[in-house]
Amino acid sequence: MMDHMGDRMSCLNVYVGSVLCASALVLAAAGDVRADQRVSNTGKPADQVVEHVRPVSLVSDEDRRHWAFQKPVAFRPPEVNAVDRVRTPIDRFLLAKLEQNGLTYSLDADRLTLVRRASMDLVGLPPSLDEVQRFLDDGRADAYEQLIDRLLASPHYGERWGRHWLDAAGYVDVRLFDGDLMSINVNDGMWRYRDYVIQSFNADKSYDRFLVEQLAGDELVDWQSDETWQLEKLELLVATGYLRNVEDPTGEPQYGIKQRYDLLFDLMGMVSTSTLGLTLQCARCHSHKYDPIPQRDYYRWMACFETSYNVHDWLKPQDRFVADVPPAERAAIDAHNAPFDKQLEPLRKQVMELEGSDEEAAKSQVADLNKQIAELDRQRLSYGKIQALWDNGDAYTSRLLRRGGYDAPGAPVDPGFLEVLSGADNQLVQRPPGTREGSSGRRLALARWLTDNQSAAGGLVARVIVNRAWQHHFGVGIVDTPGNFGRSGSPPSHPELLDYLAIDFMQHGWSLKHLHRLIMASTAYRQVSESADLTETPHAARPTGYSTDSSNRLLWRMNLRRIEAEIVRDSLLAVAGNIDLAQGGPPVMITIPSSGLSTPVQEPTPTSHLRRSIYLLNRRIYPLKFLELFDAPIMPVNCTSRLHSATVLQSLAVLNDPFVTGQARVMADRVVEMAGEDVGQQIGTAYRLALVRGPHAGEVASCRAYLADQQRNYVQASSTEEEARQRALADLCQTILCTNEFLYVD
After folding, report:
1. Beta bridge partners of 616
2. What is the rounded distance in angstroms from the CA atom of residue 310 to the CA atom of residue 144?
3. Binning pLDDT at 50, 70 and 90, where does residue 352 land?
4. What is the pLDDT of residues 321-332, one digit of tens each?
5. How many domains does the chain have?
6. Alpha helices in 676-720, H assignment, sequence order
7. Residue 673 forms part of a structural domain
């Protein structure tokens, strides 16, 4: 919270803003104005013409000197001494800085390490034994590059990297705040946006097009008057689900205009941090304390969304969907269902009134009512829902809100962009060519501005996504505050490299798969994470990297990274051979026990609970408990960087959780099926399945002794010899799954 001086400065900003507004009105009276015809949501001039003050520059050249507000510069990769370690231009930028500090790269990792590292990074699953052997047997010079291409072509790539974007977009399957553990309010059809993201990553859709579709897919095509649906039109509507991820409680009767503005404020935070890496929220109440973002610019941006989230002509969330059938077909279905809905409403009301009663007569009546409801439901027709966004209602004058208060409207503002990232002639929205009839074009104009690769804005958007990819490959970004590239964020460790990658990314069609290839082909990515004999080396004799760059910001070795929550669970299922790899569709529901120890349900299929974690119900506050323990994010708005903790609860979970012990038993059965009854073969198979390597001689000896001890203990506890062998092997499998080597990627 701000101290008294901060409060005084905030008030001063508001006062100065008021003076500027007053001065603007004086200028208007003097004739220094432009008559700006407001454009309604139908694309036609509104009845009322409002005069607006010609924009006055509030950003100086000095403000624009911060590196993030300048267009990326095409730096030439520098000359280095260790040319034998250069595989891509990335290596030159990194080596130049390493050599300046008397350092160089560590050795290359072995093939087993690389195949596991690449597989976990790109598809989020351990490599199969066949995939490992295929890579080991490939004697071609480009065997590693071929491995990368195979992983990028996998349908599971989109699941892995789609999850990263869903974090930034704040994706959840629920509509409300989700603060009640025992209550789940599913946002019907929201899962279609999740599937759209996964499919877009798999198709390597250009990132600029990906953003345009999410911000303004509905403005690109005429979808309201067509008699037939085309797949492209459906996809563009689904894409705008990006703007539907924020909490929307406005369907509840106790909420009003304040909550409508709160939704807009959350939306501003999500869009700005996920695309531009800027924290605009400060400018809601006053001009930004650190970055050159006037309060006026915040409300210019917000005006781009106010024709869709129209606070004066609001659509409740339960009405803010598009049917997955053409409008005419939906109307026919609604007409067919109307008489049934009329009969169903009183029946459902009666059930709600009678539920909870312990009287037998009431229970019998509820059963009878449910039969009637089921019979009526069978006669109804249905369609799916697309949680989309589009313009609705009449245009109104957007205004700056004094001190951010919804009840304190101030000076009018035109929809526009951030001045610090705009030229003098492109600060305000101009309706873009190609905007569909009936739409204001505001969001499309914003999307075009964000993805203009000749502008400072487009350059910043490219830097942000490049940095996010780097972060997921190396554990930390070139900028280690991925949601804040402003002055209060961290400076880039390698600014020239960041600019080089941003420009290369845009020049190669905003292709993320190209970016992966470039990063993962580098020597920097292929390094060992630690020297094999490091633990035997006295601290004083350690490589100079530990004393010169202990945090490894110069990347003289690979970072050791713990796998994310979803990948912990998915890897357990994959190693056990128990995973259901079905893709897409509605989320798998999770239970809501009072203990909070939620689990996936076995519906709609017997193996639904074994599906990848991305397909489980995403709750805003209460994710699946196992995932929560391993730092699955809470989503009040969005998440640009996850925490990676190591806690006692995680250790207790892998030791005692029924899910882990269950998968260990399934893994043990798989080991016996693959290795037979030979104990040595069983130990080797278990290691290769879980850790992608065979055991060392000492590990084999320890495992044999452990199995013998456990079998003896189980026999003494009245198990048969066969049961004792099975249970001991399951314990060994669980022990391997509990190791840091399983939970970390080196």
Report:
1. 588
2. 52
3. confident
4. 999 888 888 889
5. 3
6. 679-691, 697-716
7. yes
